[in-house]
Design brief:
Elements lengths: L22 H15 L11 H13 L3 H6 L3 H5 L5 H10 L6 E12 L6 E10 L12 E11 L2 E15 L7 H20 L7 H4 L3 E4 L1 H14 L10 H9 L2 E3 L2 H4 L17 H20 L3 H19 L5 H21 L9 H25 L7 H8 L8 H14 L1 E2 L2 H7 L3 E4 L1 H14 L6 H14 L12
Parallel strand pairs: 4-8, 5-6
Antiparallel strand pairs: 1-2, 2-3, 3-4, 7-8
Helix pairs in contact: 6-14, 6-15, 8-9, 9-11, 9-12, 11-12, 11-13, 12-13, 13-14, 15-16, 16-18, 16-19
């Protein structure tokens, strides 16, 4: 940690050329210096990282956007990735003229594998203004930046993370946390009673062929890049036929090639599910059904909508977690609503069963999404109690993993502040509350005692991922 009580030099980033008239005098001076100091002193050494950090700090708190622009890595400037107005927006958004440096550390120096490029990473902490009545203590702006050495000068390369932090001493659980947890439990109590899925859809999906759809899914991935245009997938696209064919299979086989909500561990090499591809082709299939209706082919349209329901059923049949349930119900809902729309009263069994099924699927989907929204409501640690409750649900493959994931994020990264503080800061604001973190860590310790050791392994794997990845917000930039 570096003492910053004294002011550092301010870099200009500009070398002045020597004039011809001074050259002789400089040569004589050089001879004198050789005699006094030795020849080695004439060869300049690279500037130290501390000076590069201090130069940036001086420019940043002065809101000197042009000055910061002169110390940016030359390739960034040459490629016009940033311009001076971008940097002006950056310093104004963070109100850097209201900040004062508390401390900084040069975290590490590193070289490329071929040892031709050297970098260093530093973390800077500034004392900032208060961010609203909910957080009366002064805020802190935390910056982790990267510099690169070129031509014996350290150039500012990129920010790794930038965020404000505030403190809170609220006790666990708060009234807001209890309210969110109650909403979570109410949603799950109803969902447990009616089920995330049942056998109601079997009456609408029609006969199925033996085998799984693994090869069909691979073909869809290949076709999507070719068939997707500005308006999405055309209803006559070959991929729509592939999707409808896949939906006729008895099994999906999705987990053979895709992982669920979370990878099973470091050895899990399966890909994430390409939800955007499936979504695009389901929408195109529904458009094909509507085209069939316009051409008077109502039976063809009904067949398409039934296949969409069947496609959703594939995801519900596999233990992939929340996303499998969410998208499975979404596809079933889309197909059921279209089928209910075209079904007439003289339809075998009448129109009422398919309408009732469409309403049931909508209800299931609403409850499912409401429950997850409670776990996602992390502002001021709001979802903490709901996450504790979710992590303690035995045998739950849908919400238990998300509860554990939420606890780890809150314990390791803190919680986002409320919207008013974020608006005031002009960027991400995280809340540090040791009591909340302690409650999250205790809950994680409790669930990790499960006898099989699987939960503990999942906790450790998720912990490693969260510690090494950015969880809140997007990648920072000097804009």
């Amino acid at each position: 940690m570096i003492d910053v009580s004294s002011n550092g030099d301010r870099a200009t980033g500009v070398r002045r050329p020597r004039t011809r008239e001074r050259s002789i005098g400089n040569c004589l001076l050089g001879v004198a210096l050789i005699g006094l100091l030795g020849i080695g002193s004439l060869f300049s050494r690279p500037e130290e990282p501390d000076k590069a950090v201090r130069d940036f700090v001086a420019l940043f708190v002065a809101q000197d956007a042009k000055g910061i622009f002169t110390i940016l890595q030359p390739d960034i400037v040459a490629d016009k990735e940033l311009k001076v107005p971008d940097v002006e927006s950056f310093v104004k958004r963070y109100r850097s003229n209201l900040l004062s440096l508390e401390r900084y550390t040069v975290d590490k120096r590193m070289k490329s594998e071929d040892e031709t490029t050297e970098r260093f990473q530093a973390t800077l902490v500034f004392r900032g203004p208060t961010l609203g009545s909910d957080y009366p203590d002064p805020s802190k702006l935390n910056m982790t930046l990267m510099w690169v050495l070129e031509g014996k000068q350290w150039w500012l390369e990129r920010p790794i993370s930038i965020f404000y932090s505030v403190t809170s001493d609220a006790d666990y659980p708060t009234s807001a946390q209890r309210e969110i947890a109650a909403r979570f439990e109410t949603s799950l109590r109803i969902l447990d009673r009616i089920g995330i899925s049942g056998k109601e859809d079997l009456a609408f999906i029609g006969p199925q062929k033996p085998g799984n759809a693994v090869e069909d899914f691979k073909e869809l991935e290949s076709l999507h890049a070719k068939e997707r245009g500005a308006q999405g997938i055309h209803p006559t696209g070959a991929g729509v036929d592939v999707l409808l064919r896949a939906a006729s299979r008895e099994e999906g086989g999705l987990l053979q090639i895709y992982h669920g909500d979370f990878r099973a561990g470091p050895e899990d090499r399966r890909k994430p599910v390409p939800w955007d591809i499936f979504r695009d082709y389901v929408q195109a299939a529904i458009q094909r059904g509507k085209t069939d209706e316009k051409h008077g082919s109502k039976k063809k349209a009904e067949s398409v909508y039934r296949r969409v329901i069947s496609f959703g059923r594939m995801f519900l049949n596999e233990p992939g977690g929340f996303q499998f349930a969410n998208w499975g119900l979404t596809f079933e809902k889309q197909g059921a609503h279209e089928l209910a729309r075209v079904a007439s009263s003289d339809h075998p069994g009448g129109r009422e069963p398919v309408v009732a099924f469409a309403n049931l699927v909508s209800r299931r989907l609403d409850l499912l999404q409401t429950a997850l929204a409670c776990l996602d409501d992390m502002a001021d640690y709001g979802s903490l109690k709901a996450a504790v409750d979710a992590s303690n649900r035995p045998g739950d493959i849908v919400f238990k993993p998300w509860g554990i994931n939420t606890l780890l994020i809150l314990a390791l990264k803190g919680a986002p502040a409320g919207a008013s503080a974020t608006k005031e800061a002009g960027g991400i604001v995280l809340v540090e509350n040791p009591r909340m973190k302690k409650a999250a860590l205790q809950a994680l310790d409790d669930v990790s005692k499960e006898a099989s050791g699987k939960v503990k392994a999942f906790v450790e794997f998720q912990k490693q991922w969260i510690e090494s990845n950015q969880v809140y917000g997007t990648g920072p930039s000097f804009q």
